[in-house]
Input
Amino acid sequence: MNTKVDDLDQRLSERIRLEREARGWSLSQLSERAGVSRAMIHKIERGDSSPTATLLAKLSAAFGLTMSSLIARAEASQGRLSRRQDQPVWRDPQSGYIRRHVSPMSELPLELVEVELPAGADVPIPASAYALHRRWIWVKAGNLTFVEGGETHLLGEGDCLELGPPQDCVFRNAGSGLCTYAVILLKTG
Output
């Protein structure tokens, strides 16, 4: 595995602990707010386990952050220019998807994320991960099946979908090749 990804996993573990401690929360309090077992959070904070995308979304939402913000805080990149080689990259240990935080860290309410979703992968994300955000998905290559609540959207290369109110969703690559898409998040609250 890529050393940069391994380093980011360690920094994510530390960042999750710091975010929890900065709020004065115990492991049990974070567990209750995120809907994640106390034992799993403890394993993640110790670096014994890497969070899945779904679990990371739940923890981020409990902190009032997007996954992108939490990952970027772990990476601590700054400045107006975000060079590709310096962009925070995180690999979901469950699906193998690769998430790259493209936009520079700033006070602007906009985040741009690039995702590479392997063939056959499903990534469920809870509605809480998108509270107080407007979101768009732009497919750059391949095909994406996006399940938003009870509605299914089939997206091809170049298609862009504005998401509705936050609902549980699933990013799915039912094809035989890689799907690359961008997620644009605009903080509204």
